[in-house]
Amino acid sequence: MKDSYRDGIIYSNIEISPDIYEIVLEGDFRGVPGQFYMVRGWNTLDPFLPRPISIADIENGRLKLLYEIRGRGTHIISKLKKGDILSVLGPLGNGFDLKKEGKIALITGGIGIAPMLFLAKNLAGEIHIYSGFRKNAYFLDQIRPYIKSLNIATEDGSVGHKGFVTELFNPSEYDFVYTCGPTSMMEAVMNICKDNVPVFVSMESRMACGIGACLGCTVKTIRGMERVCKEGPVFKGEEVMLND
Amino acid sequence: MTKVEILGIELKNPVIAASGTFGFGREFDEYFPIEKLGGISTKGLTLNKRDGNKGIRIYETPSGLMNSIGLQNPGVMGFIKDELPFMEKKDTIILANLGGSTLDDYLEAIELLNETSIHFIELNISCPNVKEGGMAFGIKCNTAFEVVKEAKKISKKPMIVKLSPNAENIKDMAYTCVEAGAHGLSLVNTFNALAIDIYKRKPIFENVRAGLSGPCIKPIALRMVHEVSKVVNVPIIGIGGIVNAEDAIEFIMAGATAIQVGSGNFIKPDLSIDIIRGIEDFMNKEGIKSLEEIRGII
Fold it and tell me: Is the ipTM of this complex over 0.85?
């Protein structure tokens, strides 16, 4: 049997950029890059649903999650302090393919940076990262030791290239691409890479159960409807039909 | 001690997993042995496979959620071939939840289910998320009468009709369904509801409306179960925002023989186990030997 929700004791919970938090839980957590946990930071019926948050890192059993304040749930979690409890279920879903080698590009948009530290640490290839943000760049200092090059774009030009991160990237230089971010950005990445280089996409979706039962997070693929929480969140780019 | 009987079929306890929140039990069986449940109502089936609705399917509301899944399911044949063999191995009662967009679809699907090991058909005339799909039958008494009467004629399984709270009058609807031949009733399905994205100036859901469930609807669902229990003489399964044993016992006191846990399954996968234990504790504390002692006492 798998564990149901269990208590994670908060080791730290810090704002690393406006509205972007990094929370670390004590314990013996497991998981692979690209998997996620469902989390609940309250004992009440309101907010009603737990929140899916991808694994940012696991070190000595400590689980690190990176999250953006999007609504009431993440707002409540952001107020939790060291020693408080975050209830968690996981690890859930299927992570990234870690067996790929060669020259690999990680392309992220906003909070889509979250799974990339853990991924970069566990990929054997030569890794180059392309990260886009609205204004402030974050989390990159932690990833820097594990990558060959860092390319940043911001929409307002405050850091790095002014514009979209996809404008910095040349697919013909790479053997594989891993991407996580807003659907519109991942669509652009898939279009650029089409017929050039294989892409792995990590999907984000609203979820209720997180374990594959409610069908609230399904996405259309070449095999039919699949669940972001169960068959995903990582899919092969050529298999997923984002527009349908 | 917690066992209950519905139409001659014994459930080891009154807690049933509600349709659409529990798949076919496979995912939850990884977290607790699903045979501990009194029963499982399958994901809503239709004669043919459906991909379900596009766009956002889940939206949280205060103490609840709205959904517009749109009856994504493998079709009755897919269920019989790929899901039922798994469920059959579990020692629990199976309710095949069946929706349809035409009377013929319902009837053809019932003929297929007649030949299987399922224990009950839960006739869904109340899904709000499919055009012409189910709920059209569950609003007006005369259309409900027609579909239940025809379904009853060919069904070899005991038939529980799942009612929509969106019915014009829930008491008339319940009475009509029983007149038409329903062996039992389950209520309520989700409430037709609306949410708007004020920045996009558009509805959240592509179908505009979606179904509201969760603790926010519980008091209304409880009132409806209570009202219906006064006008019909068939077993009632109470549904609507049940998240703990106290909620479940309220529904039983209001007249339900069994209850279903729906949205509560999203709080944690093994919530139903807590509810079953809580019912046992309550019975011990209150010196209740059988749930019949408290059923419908309000």
Answer: yes
